[in-house]
Design goal:
Elements lengths: L7 E5 L3 H12 L3 E6 L18 E2 L2 H6 L4 E4 L6 H10 L4 E4 L7 H13 L3 E4 L7 H8 L9 E9 L7 H12 L5 E7 L15 E7 L5 E7 L7 E6 L2 E5 L7 E5 L15 E5 L8 H13 L8 H20 L3 E2 L4 H5 L6
Parallel strand pairs: 1-2, 1-4, 2-3, 4-5, 5-6, 7-10
Antiparallel strand pairs: 7-11, 8-9, 8-15, 9-10, 11-12, 12-13, 13-14
Helix pairs in contact: 1-7, 3-4, 4-8, 6-8
């Protein structure tokens, strides 16, 4: 987007993510012109009190504000209808929270509608805007550790759609595209979804197979309450992330051992301190998504990226329901199924 000193941003939904989007817009020098939320006292007001004069529950007042970008920070059931309303009112730029939609077909349809209107939509998969993961991806194929072979993520809290889509996108980012096949089962959540009883978003455990035999092993149990840990295993090294905001640990073979075959798995590893890649700043991640939607250049987190994560999610749910391996892209039945994810 050119010739616009301070892009005008409207935000729908002023909960946790809506507040972070507002903070991101302000950090980026944007003008938050209106915020729509039905709650009498939206949570975001406690985080960004200066926006109080621009927060309203009156949809007519909200839509009357001229805006260059609409950011939708509601639950997934509101994303497509609100983007469509924005299109109807002439808005061309959109940021949508994840999960992108509640079905693959809905994602495909929404992408087509935005494109037909000459618009641009970005999905808030914020790890694509963190320098640390670009540094990690640069290790793939390096002399130091060799090619990336597998990713393991273990996290608590369940919510395969709401939380898991972040993990799917990270795996897709690291491997350069969507998986070929998925095998999965569901792990029950031992809590009622805090976003409301209308949502059903169980945990899961899954194997995602990517091209070249690379794979991701994901454990997102809703019956465990533990922070995420991640391990990226290369041919002769691994990176362990126990806390994304603290230094990551890199282990690799000695230079003289790198040519040894994988059967020599007992070759000792050297630990190298990895420079802190930067804190997990969710506001900064959201700012990257806002800039992505406002840019006229190549997108980093466009609707196609959101569609990829929905394909993975639908494959996991279909695999768990059918007890079989599911290939991507998913079949028509799985693509059309609407999941009550928040």
């Amino acid at each position: 987007m050119t010739n616009q000193i301070a892009p005008r941003v409207g935000i729908i939904g002023f909960g946790r993510m809506g507040a972070r989007i507002a903070l991101a817009a302000l950090r980026g020098g944007m003008d938050v012109v209106a915020v729509l939320d039905s709650a009498p006292e939206p949570w975001g007001l406690g985080q960004v009190p200066d926006l109080a004069p621009r927060v309203t529950s009156d949809s007519d007042r909200f839509w009357a504000a001229p805006m260059d970008l609409l950011a939708v920070g509601t639950t997934a059931d509101g994303h497509a209808p609100l983007v469509r309303e924005g299109l109807r009112r002439g808005i061309k730029r959109f940021v949508v929270e994840k999960p992108f939609t509640q079905s693959v077909v809905e994602a495909e349809t929404l992408i087509a509608e935005v494109a037909a209107a000459g618009g641009r939509i970005s999905v808030n998969h914020g790890r694509r805007f963190l320098a640390g993961y670009y540094k990690l991806r640069e290790l793939d194929g390096s002399d130091l550790v060799g090619s990336l072979r597998s990713i393991t993520v273990v996290s608590g809290g369940g919510s395969t759609g709401c939380l898991g889509t972040h993990v799917f996108d990270l795996c897709n980012f690291m491997f350069g595209g969507a998986p070929l096949r998925v095998f999965a089962g569901l792990a029950p959540n031992d809590f009622t979804d805090p976003r409301g009883a209308r949502f059903d978003d169980p945990g899961s455990y899954s194997v995602l197979e990517y091209a070249g035999g690379r794979r991701a092993l994901l454990e997102m149990g809703g019956d465990t309450g533990l922070p995420s840990t991640m391990e990226f295993r290369f041919r002769h090294g691994r990176v362990v992330i126990e806390d994304e905001s603290k230094p990551w640990r890199l282990f690799h073979r000695k230079p003289e051992d790198r040519a040894l075959p994988c059967s020599r798995y007992g070759a000792p590893l050297i630990e190298t301190v990895v420079e802190n890649p930067g804190t997990l700043d969710i506001v900064e991640m959201s700012l990257g998504t806002l800039r992505d939607a406002l840019s006229d250049g190549p997108q980093q987190a466009g609707g196609d990226i959101g569609l990829q994560t929905m394909q993975v999610f639908a494959a996991i749910r279909a695999s768990a329901a059918r007890g079989v391996v599911v290939a991507l892209p998913v079949d028509d039945e799985a693509a059309a199924t609407i999941y009550a994810i928040p």
